[in-house]
Amino acid sequence: MSVVPGSIETDRQPPMTIPLRHFLLAQVLLVAGVVAGIADAMGQVAGFATAAQLHLLLAGWVCVTIMGAMTQFVPVWSGVELHSRRFAAAQLWLVLLGLAGFATGLLTARIELLLPFGTVMALGFWTFVYNVGRTLADARPLDVTERHFAIALGFFLLVTGFGILLALSLRRPVFADLPVARADAVAAHATLAVFGAVLTTVFGALYQLATMFTQTELHGVDLHLQRFEAAGYPLGVLALAGGRLFAIEWLALAGGLVVLASVLAVAAILARRLLETTVPWTPMLSRYAVAVPAFGLWAILTVPVWVADPLAADATLGAPGTDLLLTMGGIGFVVFGTLYHVVPFVIWVHRYSDLLGFEDVPMIDDLYDDRIARIDLLFLVAGVLGLVAGDLAALEPRVLATGGIALGVGVLAFGWNLLAVIRRHGPHSLPEILFSIGGAGGRTDGERTAEEVTDA
């Protein structure tokens, strides 16, 4: 069973309402993204449904989860205070408001909504970047995870800057006087978002999580692969994005090959950690085990496509038909697995950690329902496999819709399981988590200290 590792400082973490609010609302965005994808597969959406789905899943579910996780764990791992709790609370509402309007504009083809709401969304991400960046500045020297997070924050700035420029270009001829085409800027924006902001964060977190919760250490070839990825991957992303932005094929190819090699390196490191672990398998590790072949297969399928043409419009996120293999199969299952530990961890620390040694308390992995975890894993895997196979084989829309429905069932089961953890064990009610002002506030009446237990 998982316990809180002794090397992290849980007294540095922000109030539990802040990260939990991010995680809860991120699940709403996940459901919205899946629904948008099903509607698109069934031909029920007339607007820019694919773009809306990608923004709901990536800028929404994945990035809002990243915001909550960094806000929670940078102070914990780095042993420093979060720079501002108010900024941490404000960033979420800005991103949510902006994304809601932005997605509405895409789904209804009302392009006049994209710039104002996109700007609000960018303000939320900038608030997050400033807050976590100031927090990391107090943690120097940075370890490999912290360096990845710092680099990811830089990618967030680049992504949002491109996003505003692209939204503005729909109203004004911005690119008429620039040496780049709008289509190339879109490709660079997507490259920086997925491979830069998102995957850099995922890789950095895995170096910490994959060792901590398998109770193993990097050794041998792992260390060589890590050094290659840590040094080469950010440069590879910049080269791939720059090559696509300026239509320089050799630059995009060089960057793309480094990106692919880095993805394979991280997949190999994660696979070795899972194979060497002696701890019981948890939903977290089971989902990481799904991510390993997803990352590996995506990279293998993408190599010949990017070698042939790294600038191809239909290969921005990899070989045609593999977008979901990367985003849901790889990134998605890392997020699913991480949340299966993070949410119970946050609850456990605030509700039970001070009681440890004074009365019987559950362990972190006792807080969720194992049966529901197995069910959601089955449907999530089936859904992703169905969607990926449907895309690769160009199957009929109803087949894709079936895969989407299976994915939706898995998402709902996953969300229900984590919601039950909060409702049964959390010291705060759902309205308190969602709407407490600023996320501030200390211990509630439901949380007792060890001294109070002793006095009792």
What does this 3D model show about the protein?
By secondary structure, the protein is mostly helical. It is globular. Helix 6 crosses helix 10, helix 9 runs parallel beside helix 11 and helix 11 packs antiparallel against helix 12. It has one domain: Cytochrome C Oxidase, Chain A (Up-down Bundle). About 75% of the residues lie in helices and about 0% in strands. The protein has 14 helices and no strands.
User: CATH H-level name... which superfamily?
Assistant: Cytochrome c oxidase-like, subunit I domain
Q: Name the poorly predicted regions.
A: 1-7, 438-456
Taking all Cα atoms into account, the compactness measure Rg is: 21 Å
Beta-strand fraction estimate: under 5%
Largest sheet: none
CATH class: Mainly Alpha
* Alpha plus pi helix count: 14
- What's the domain count? 1
Shape: globular
What distinguishing features does this structure have?
mainly alpha, 14 helices, Cytochrome C Oxidase, Chain A, disordered C terminus, disordered N terminus, 456 residues
Summarize the structure.
The chain is an all-alpha fold. It has helices spanning 17-41, 49-78, 85-108, 114-137, 144-169, 182-212, 221-245, 249-276, 283-308, 323-351, 370-393, 397-425, 430-435, 450-455.
Note the topology:
Blueprint lengths: L16 H25 L7 H30 L6 H24 L5 H24 L6 H26 L12 H31 L8 H25 L3 H28 L6 H26 L14 H29 L18 H24 L3 H29 L4 H6 L14 H6 L1
Helix pairs in contact: 1-2, 1-12, 2-3, 2-4, 2-6, 2-10, 3-4, 4-5, 5-6, 6-7, 6-8, 6-10, 7-8, 8-9, 9-10, 9-11, 10-11, 10-12, 11-12
